[in-house]
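Hi,

I'm pasting everything inline rather than attaching a file, because the server keeps stripping attachments. The sequence lines come first, and each chain or strand is labelled.
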Amino acid sequence: MQHVSPIREPLVTGGKTYHDITEDVCRQVEAKPNIRWAAALAVALVGLAIFLYSVYRTLWYGIGEWGLNKTVGWAWDITNFVWWVGIGHAGTLISAILLLFRQKWRTSINRAAEAMTIFAVICAAMFPVLHMGRPWLAYWVLPLPNTFGSLWVNFNSPLLWDVFAISTYFSVSLVFWYIGLIPDFATIRDRATGPIARRAYAALSMGWTGSAKAWSRYETVSLILAGLATPLVLSVHTIVSMDFATSVIPGWHTTIFPPYFVAGAIFSGFAMVLTLMIITRKVFFLEHYITLEHVESMNKVIILTGSIVGIAYTTEFFIAWYSGVEYEQYAFINRAFGPYWWAYWAMMTCNVITPQLFWFRSIRRSLTATFIISIFVNIGMWFERFVIIVTSLHRDYLPSSWAMFSPTIIDIGIYVGTIGLFFTLFLLFAKFFPVVNMAEVKAILKSSSEVKHSHNSHAKSMHGTAPESNTNTPHSNE
Amino acid sequence: MQDRIKYWRGIEELENTPEFAKHAHNEFPEYLPLGEGSKEAETSGAGKTHRRDFLKLLGFSVAAASLASCEAPVRKAIPYLNKPVDVEPGTANWYATTYYLNGDYNSILVKTREARPIKIEPNPSSALTPIGTSARAQASVLSVYDNNRLRTPLVKGAVAEWEQVDKEITSKLGSVSGKVALVSSTVISPSTKKLINEFGSRFGNFEHVVYDANSSSALLAANNGVVPGYDFSKANIIVGINADFLGTWLAPVIFSKQYIQNRKPTADNPTMSRHYQFETAMSLTGANADVRVPIKPSDEQAVVTALYNAITGGGSAGNVAGIDAKMLADTVRDLKANNGKALVVSGSNNSSVQAMVAAINNALGAAGSTIDTASPYFVKQGNDAQMIRLIEEMNNGSVGAVFFYNANPAYDHPLADKVASGLKKVGLKVSFAERVDETAALVDIIAPDHNFLESWNDYEPKKGFISLAQPVLSPIFKTRQVQDSLLAWSGNTTSYYEYIRNNWRGILTGDFNQAWEKAVHDGVVQNGSSMLTPASNFTAATITTTAAKPAAGAIEAVLYEKVAIGTGVEANNPWLQEMADPISKATWGNYVAMPRKMAIDMGIAQNDVVKVTMQNGTAIELPVLIQPGQAQGTVAIAIGYGRNLEAMPVAKGVGANAYPIATVVNNNVILSGGVKIEKTGATSEIAQMQTHHTIMDRNVVQENTLANYKANPKDVTEYIRIATHEGPAKPSTISLWDDYEYKNHHWGMVIDLNSCIGCGACTISCQAENNIPVVGKAEVLMRREMHWIRIDRYYSAVEHEEKDYKTMEDPAENPSVIFQPMMCQHCNHAPCETVCPVAATMHSSEGINQMAYNRCVGTRYCANNCPYKVRRFNWFAYANNDKFDYTMNNDLAKFVLNPDVTVRGRGVMEKCSFCVQRVQLGKLDAKRENRRPKDGEIVTACAQSCPTEAIVFGDMLDKESRISKVLAREQGERAFHVLEELNVQPNVTYLTKIRNLA
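And the predicted assembly:
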């Protein structure tokens, strides 16, 4: 039985009790996988197979398998890299910054969002390694003591900063995510019946006892990690943007890049979170935890960051004109009206125009509309990176070197493949890990105040086939 | 007797314990349990070898065996047992010799390492070609390592021994009935000519038939059988009419050097020649002309007639339909004003046109000034009428024996079909071809010639200028020099080497052996003696003013030689196939070059495949290339392509054969003809190395007029200044970076855009020097060519408004052209150096931007951040890869690799190194002699091969060096850096091009 504030809308709907939360979340982990999950995993595994094949071709024959050329030295590889890193932004933003700001609504989505971050960063990290001509020497970009004489990495290089930024971000996100998982693993361990599950979750929960001391430490570590992760949210994409901003290429050499990239990253990250959440809540019957309020809040972030990105696009144009630099001016005119005009306008449509629809409350609260727009934003943000990278490179200073880029089947394979890799990881996560942070969601369940009734009928109609989650039986707070 | 010194195998042997003594003669120590078990087992029934020991041993053996099998194959380097005196491993030797092919004459030095040639360099002793070579000469060093050359003689297609060949030929020659003919392209070797005549003197009816694939018969007919001794350096006004004398016509390297001598204006002496060019296809020469007028081939006679009437008759030029009257009037005015300092040349093979051109030159007083009458050229001697007559005789069955030497008429003669049919009626057919070419496939016996680098020979390209060729490596295959074959078949037992020596006794003065040694060493004898006599079998040309008009409505097609491929002899050379055409920048194949307006009218776009139907009904299919400057109503197609030979795998299936388009008019082969062009609907992409052709109003390449230069030399270059609060500032004065301090050397390069004619010799020279891979057509289409130095070619754009970017993408219909060699600029503030995460590219203490291939992980960030886009990436493994079967995939071709330069592996970046291996070697040589390197001692491959001295390389810290002087002279006048506003501070400086506009 849920206690609800008469003024404020509840963060978790459906009259959930503490036990309901445990049941609802653990059900996916404990039950046999449902057919929809298995089907989705099968599709994702096909994607993974495409990925592995494309990687094999790349590693065995060389980067020549891709569509790059002497003028356009980066294209889909770094586009995909920045896209995935961008997607990987929402998780930490939600968990860390919203934690610091005490935004309690985050609790039901932060787990999945963080998982998404980690998987996205894994996908992103594939590209800096794979795009190397000699990936087997990738460790040379680490400042390791070595036997090559006095050789050291070049600390001037933004690519090196990238290595540090991404690896730091990945480690902090992973630790943050894992620490959040420990109490929930313990819950699953305690409920587990099978010997493998019991042992596995025992190991994963690292001997969590649930003592007050443990909880106190848990809270402290979360806060510290949130504090550590917060600057990372800003720094990672700032540094990624410096790959471009510190160069001399017109269209790259732009001081607006750091804030513009961070806004874009949050924009795309939230869009991806929405895409995944809308599917997950449906597939795993988590509608009461991931509510329309969540969707709406995130849509508001999307409209804000989308507008920032839109302003950034306009500012770039203005500055190109205002600078009086002919190369800069041409770079931007070429983006909008050159041979890659379609990419530019795809970006503008998807990133600037479609999110503006969220000004309408009905669209903001429509799951279908949100889902479609989130896909648009994902596509648009991919095109944004493509536009920045390819249209700037393909016509830079000397017209004699101007060239076009077109992807090969391997380029496409690797991109599609990372999506396969991502979903494989995500689906495995969704099956074997608790997708909602039970411990923290329980913390936001109000246990005082008056009892709100008459939620069941409504919940039932939303749920259909999941009656046990809507039981009227009062449960003790377990 | 003293005890012998004893060596112990160990301390145990010294101590000689009983334990040791017991085991001393057992080869294997006891603890190896091998075999013991069985012995013990016999007595005790229980083996000492435990199962575990057995398994251990088994595991060890398997591991050892599999480790051994993983070992890389052993490749042995065998040292010399008896070291040849002049071969020092690791040290290069240079030998003087001569390259000659289809008029392209170069006196050269061949750099050899460990007795194998690896690089062609100009011979400074030569008076004709002391600086620079042609691209084809540069590439010729690769041809000697062509795996597809014949390894043995062939008799009726079967491998044979030379004895068998000799027996067969001498016996057949003994009973030959009818005419004996030796068909060759131009022979400029005095000794060979003498030998051919001696060989023929045995037969009652012998003829040495000379024809050239790109014939100059008419020119020879109008000039008593020789090429007039043109001297472009003496001309103030040069008029070229369809003569690509800088690219392919007659002796382009000699002419380029002369041409540029009078085109290097300085502020002190701002004079240069003015060059008018009337031509159909945009040629390298037309691209360099100050005034270029497109004409149809059918208007050629009218244009020359107009000039002829105006110059010899004294009237005005009058009007020629379709030709800009002002241009023609300007030409006449300038010619008349420069009597004695003017030269008119025509590439026409119409005797009447050539007769008129000769008369014009005569009237202009060219003789003795711009034409050296005492010293004509012998570089072309082909007589079309003679060859056409022979083809008829073969078909009549009146030819008993025919020999083909450097001649392939079954491919490159417009009557190739008749050659094939005629050959069936010839009793003895012999070819000296180095491979089974189109003609050799039709003969009985192939007696393969040596490559020129394996041969002795002599050459006289110009009267009084003789050069020698000496072998620089022993023959790779069982081939024999043509001359030795002819000697053998004449029953003469002397070698050709002796024959030349004997022949030379007449021209060398003083002690013969000493003089001969010196001649071999220098490669040239320029004491005025001459051994060649001009051919006298030409019918003197007469002037007729009526021109044969092409069939009404037909499109006029002209055939031309590409600078790289020429007439197709060297078509199997991958360097040449992948060399960008200087004008179209296209590689790997020919195409139909068409003016844009005509293409639009016909609804044809670039890369559309069209069917070109000739007058005789045969057709070829080729893609269309939109060529600015091509005369309206005409198309141009390159010869030398469309090979289908097994012996030419590189050229196989590349392009189509355009020779059949040529027509025979008045017994002269005219490389043009009327064609019909239809769209096929198919497309085939042309692999161009540059796909954007206009400069987009950017300041990256600068040019101005001679008039402005004369008015104020400080006003011809636009210098970019950055706006600051203190007013405009030179970009290099505003910097965040500390400058490098150069204490010892500071290498730099100056490229004079006025001297660069765009020939591309530097590209191939660099390719040979720096082991640059050939990547093939598909990769060029992917824009992945590897050339370290490229020549950017820009056309002027059509009329457009400022910032009208769409319009300025289109080149003008008859554009002015500018060339800009572009390679790593070795920036002092290099954008590539800062972005490499592993510091694989860095700055040397002498200003060179270096690449450490071994350190490169291949992020390509440096290439992206290079504003000049000069970095090249190894997308694949180009060596030892069957997909790139060009120069680094077989042991023979690999001999051409320069051992001083690393062959780059897959996945690393590379780029121009300023020939750092030459810089280091030069410094080392100087250091060993305890002195500073002298200026001019260290020179990059590109600068060395430039026939116009457009590239100057040197130490900018040495105040006396040529580069320092040029920079000091041109600072603030013509010297500029490309993209100076980026403040990358390149070490390469360009000099503004000056045009002498009419």
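Chain B touches chain A through 60 residues (CB under 8 Å).

If the labels don't parse on your end, tell me and I'll reformat.
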